[in-house]
Amino acid sequence: MNHKFHKAYKVFGFLLAAAFLWNACVKNDFDTPDPMVLPVGEVHTLAELRQMFAANNNQPIKFTEDVSVYGVITMDGSSGNIYRGAYMQDGTAAINLRIMSPGGLYQGDSIHLNLKGTLLSAYENMLQIDSVHTGKNVAKLATKVEVEPLTTNINNLLSDASLQARLIRLEGVEFHQNELGKTYADGENLITQNRILRDCDGNEILVRTSGFASFADYNIPEGNGSFVAVLAHFRDDKQLYIRDIEEVQLDGDRCPTPGEDMESISIAEIRQLQAQGTNNIPPNRRLDGVIISDREHENHPGQNLFIMDENGDGLALRFASFHNFDLGDQLRVLVGSLPISRFNGLLQVESIPLGNGYVMGEGTLPEPTTTTLGNLVQNFSQYESTLIRLENVTIPPAGSFNGNITITDGTAEVIMRTYAWASFANTPVSGGIYNMVAIASYYNGAQLQLRSLSDLEFLEEYDPGSDDETISIAQLRQLFNDGASAAPAGAAIEGIITSDKDNGNHHERNAVIQDESGGIALRFTANHDLNMGDKVRIHVGTVELSQFNGLLQLNNLPNGNASLLATGQSVEPVVTTIDNLLNNMNTFESIVVTIENATISGGSNFQGERTVNDGTGSIMLFTRNQASFASSSVPSQAVKLTGIVAVFNNPQILMRNLNDIEE
Q1: What is the predicted pLDDT for the residue at 35?
Q2: Which of 103, 334, 418, 617 is a Cys-bridge partner for 579, taking CB atoms 3.0 to 4.6 Å apart?
Q3: pLDDT tens, 578-600?
Q4: Tens digits of per-residue pLDDT, 572-581?
């Protein structure tokens, strides 16, 4: 017999016998392996861990020796509502576990947790055991252990720090009226959302749901009842995490309609109270109305809104935090005892707790009242915080909507205000004549707020400023000296731009203009494109006149108010001495001057503050870091210095470019 074949046959026979033996030993019931045994070391309760962290000034503690805690997992990540985490609880307290990889710990697991290699730390005020390795740090002692939720109330959750991470049950709670019709989160776009849960006394707490949760797209239940969750903490917010949607049993009757037992108060009554010197609304009052401002397009601060009641009166409301009330909502606000005041002239109810507002359903928007700007200005109290309609309004081509734009209808000029964060703030303005709807607001004078660009109806093009009355810069300055805070309606100035934007020694929004009577600083609402030597006509009607650190300027000047008349013009500098300049600042402010026999000291280059002396006195020469000549060397000898006279708390001179130095 072939030896190779004989050897292979023996091997085959051995394997065949082994196979029979294996089949004879196979059992359908496997023995349960013994649980993993971990070193124990020191044993602590979860309450003791919390005390240990507090005693360490709330600074992280790294465990390098064997330290053990025992407890039960009360929430895991299987629903998708938390990720790489779990909540653990013993008979003394609870804590969040941050797991190095998902899975491995499940609700009901009774565990021995060895802390060696983990970190006790706080993330945004939530205490956690970080870097838990389920294969190295955890031994399971039992499964499917039931932990009874602690029945408590929202006030306790908000005030008792010892309840952090605990499994809790609330009774008699419901989601806020404003949340109805929504889902827990945005599962389609995987966006986490907060919803407000409240009790019948108006106490509120956040319910946070991950966009990855299996129930993210479930509708918010409309009833009242029982709610089981785990209490978490993020910065200043206490928040609840649902572990199982079946533990949300909100199918009973809702709390009584808020405010039904309160006396209704009208906006007219609130205005009358403020006019009589009352600073707070009487207790137990409610206000009902329809929201006329549009949160979606954000042309107001996020805490603010405008509301009109059934009598057609309007009022500004300011909540304590950002709200989610929308245009057209029928809103009820519990206003009893809340303060009423005027903010820069606009009447408002302020410091309204967010929970004091309730959407009662979809309201009917009031029809805007047709009026003129002249009538608005003369009878503002009649229109304050209401919707108005204006016809044949001229809007100048003012760059973008961002900031203040002065508009007119031939009866008066009023500012149209657009906040920088409005959805349409950066949309270019097409100058022309419009019909428009707006909210009549106030900020040291009547102003208008669009809700969106849908409030504008374009009629025809128009050349703004052509019919203005030209006044001199000296007249403008005198008006300010006489107490005016804005340029007169229908006014324009003409002059030559003396600042040099190309060389950067003025801010991109700033310029200086000079005519035969004087000069003045211009502060535009956006970066301008005016060059030194441009002759311009500027529509200044109702534009703010104010001082910035002592320098008089036309402030918040819409870019579109400036029209180019010619280029390549020049202004002859006024030759003077520093002593004469300082003694006649009213004459020289924002004028181009020349100082002869001037020596410059204080540094080797122009950047920053330097001192100019001509033998009669001294003045500061200031150069911005952004100026093209900031790093150029200062002449060591006396020079003829030309520049624009400015003020920044004290008089100073601003060079325009290096041509302003003649050696």
Answers
A1: 62
A2: 617
A3: 999 999 999 999 999 999 999 99
A4: 999 999 999 9
CB 464 within 8 A of CB 397: yes
- Tokens 């419901």 correspond to 174
- Whether the CB-CB separation of 179 and 195 falls below 8 Å is answered with yes
- In the chain the first and final C-alpha atoms are separated, in Å, by 118
Q: Is the pLDDT of residue 10 over 70?
A: no
The upper half-sphere exposure of residue 326, i.e. CA atoms within 13 Å in the direction of its Cβ, equals 7
pLDDT, the chain, mean: 91
Domain 42-142 class in CATH: mainly beta
According to DSSP, residue 562 is labeled: E
The token pair at 654 is: 């601003």
Q: What angle do CA 405, 407, 410 make, to 5 degrees?
A: 165
Position 400 confidence tier, pLDDT thresholds 50, 70, 90:
confident
Any residues with CB less than 8 A from the CB of 16 and at least 6 apart, and which?
none
Q: Which amino acid is at 126?
A: M
CATH topology of domain 263-362: OB fold (Dihydrolipoamide Acetyltransferase, E2P) (2.40.50)
pLDDT for 513 beyond 50: yes
Enter the pTM of the model: 0.51
Among 474, 523, 517, 515, CA closest to 498: 515
505, with CB counted inside 10 A (0-12, 13-18, 19+), is buried
Domain 574-662 fold: OB fold (Dihydrolipoamide Acetyltransferase, E2P) (2.40.50)
Q: What is the DSSP letter of 633?
A: B
Give mean pLDDT, residues 159-177.
96
Give the CATH architecture of domain 369-460: Beta Barrel (2.40)
**Which pLDDT value is given to residue 467?**
61
Contacts of 71 (CB under 8 A, 6+ apart): 46, 88, 89, 90, 94, 110, 111, 113
- CATH architecture of the domain covering 469-566: Beta Barrel (2.40)
The bridge status of strand 639-648 relative to strand 661-662 is antiparallel
Ranges assigned E (strand) in 498-561? 510-514, 519-524, 535-539, 544-548, 551-557
Q: Please, what is the Cα angle at 574 between 568 and 579, to 5 degrees?
A: 150
CA angle 483-512-493, nearest 5°? Answer: 60
Q: Which helix (H) or strand (E) holds 98?
A: strand 94-99
Lowest mean per-residue pLDDT among 104-118, 357-371, 392-406: 392-406
Q: How does pLDDT run across 31-46, given as a tens digit for each residue?
A: 444 567 899 999 999 9
Q: CA-CA distance, 476 to 487, in Å (whole number)?
A: 7
Note the residue count of the chain: 663
Q: Report the DSSP pairing between strands 608-613 and 618-623.
A: antiparallel
- Over 80: is that where the pLDDT of 330 sits? yes
Contact 258, 334 (CB under 8 A): yes
